[in-house]
User: Fold this.
Amino acid sequence: MKLRYKILSVSVILLAFAVLALAIALSYTSACGPSPPLAAGATPMKAIVHRCYGSPDVVRYEDIAKPVPADNEVLVRVHAASVNPLDWHYLEGTPYMVRIDGGLGKPGNPRLGVDFSGTVEAVGKAVTRFKPGDEVFGGKFGALAQYVAVAENRAIAARPATVTHEQAAAVAIAGVTALQALRDEGHIHSGQKVLINGASGGVGTFAVQIAKSFGTQVTGVCSTRNLELVRSIGADQVIDYTHTDVTKGSERYDLILDNVATHSLSDYKRILTPQGIYVGIGSTDTGRWFAWLWKPLQGWMLSHFTTQKFTTIFADLNREDLATLAALMEAGKLTPVIDRAYPLEQSADALRYLEQGHARGKVLVTVP
Ligand SMILES: NC(=O)c1ccc[n+]([C@@H]2O[C@H](COP(=O)([O-])OP(=O)(O)OC[C@H]3O[C@@H](n4cnc5c(N)ncnc54)[C@H](OP(=O)(O)O)[C@@H]3O)[C@@H](O)[C@H]2O)c1
Assistant:
C-alpha cells in the first residue's frame, strides 16, 4: 500500500475513534451524586437543582449558597419565575449537544430555570442602571431560586408597573423569542397575513399579540379547547388543528411562525406567498442526537431554490428586547397569558406539566 493511502487509512480510523469517543462522552449520564455541603460562611437560600441529567424526578429542592453579586452584577430577590422547554432540555441533557454547554456526564451548574421577576436587593459597586428596591424582570440561568445575580448589561430590565411579578416572570424567553422571530427573522410589517402555528403555548400567546401590535392580520392554529383563548388575545382567525389541516387550505400567508413543526416544509411552502417567510423555532420532537437540525438544514437548502425563505431562529436574550416588550406591556398591547402556577418546591411538577406540550400560555413558579 502506498504511503499516502496508509496515512489516509490511519487518519480515517483515528477520526472514527474521535467521533465515537465524543459520542460516548456526550451521551454518558453519571449517577445522581449527593449534594455538597454549603461552603463555610455561605448564606443559604432555597433553590431547585439537579445533580444529574434525568426526568423531573431527579429535581431537588435544596439549600444552596446565596449568590454574592460581582461588581457589575445586581442581586435580585426572585418573586416569580416561569419554566420553558429549554429548562427540561438542560434538565435531561437532551439533545446531547446541550451537554457541551451544560456539562459532560452531569450538569456543571446544577441550578435550573431562566425567566424571573423580582426586586433588586443589592448591587455591585460598578452598577449604574439599578439600585436596591428596583422592580425588575429578565432571564438568568438559575432563576428557580430565591436569588439570582445578573450582570447589569445582560437580560434584565425594569418591570412595568402595569404588570404583576407573575406576569413579568412569564416574559423573557417566550416573549423575546416571539419578538425576534417575527421582527428580525420574519421582517413583519403592517398589512401582512401572519400564521402562528402553536398559538396557545408560551411563545404562541406572545407571538399572536406582538404580531397584532405590528398591524397584521393574524391566524392562530391551536386545539379546540384553546380557540377562545387565542381569539381573546387578538387573533383575527383561529384554526382548530384537530379538525382542519391549515396546510390544505386556500389561504396564503406572508409570514409563518412555526412553534411546533407539525408539518413538512413542502406543506408550509404551499401556503406561503411567493415572497413569504417561514420562521421555525421549535419542534415537538427534538430527539437525542441531531433530529432538531433536520428542519433548519432542509429550510436552508430549500431557500436556495425558491423566492420564499425558510429560516430558524435561536433567540438571544438581551435587555433591549426586554425593554421593547416592557413598552408593549405598558402600552396595553401585550399581556402575558398565565396557565397555572406552582410553588418553588413543586417545580418538578411544573416541568412535568410543561413537558406534556399542552401548556396554555406560561407555566409559573412562585418563590417564597
Ligand atoms: N429557537 C428558540 O430560540 C426557542 C425559544 C423558545 C422556545 N423554543 C421552542 O419552541 C417550542 C414552543 O415553545 P413554547 O414555550 O411555546 O412551548 P409550550 O408552551 O409547551 O407550548 C406548546 C403549544 O404547542 C401547541 N401544540 C401542540 N401540538 C400542536 C399541533 N399539532 N398544532 C398546533 N399547536 C400544537 C399546544 O397547544 P394545544 O394544547 O392546543 O395542543 C401548546 O399550546 C418548543 O419546542 C421550544 O423548545 C425555541
DSSP finds eleven helices and 15 strands in the chain. The chain has two domains: 44-171+336-366, 174-312.
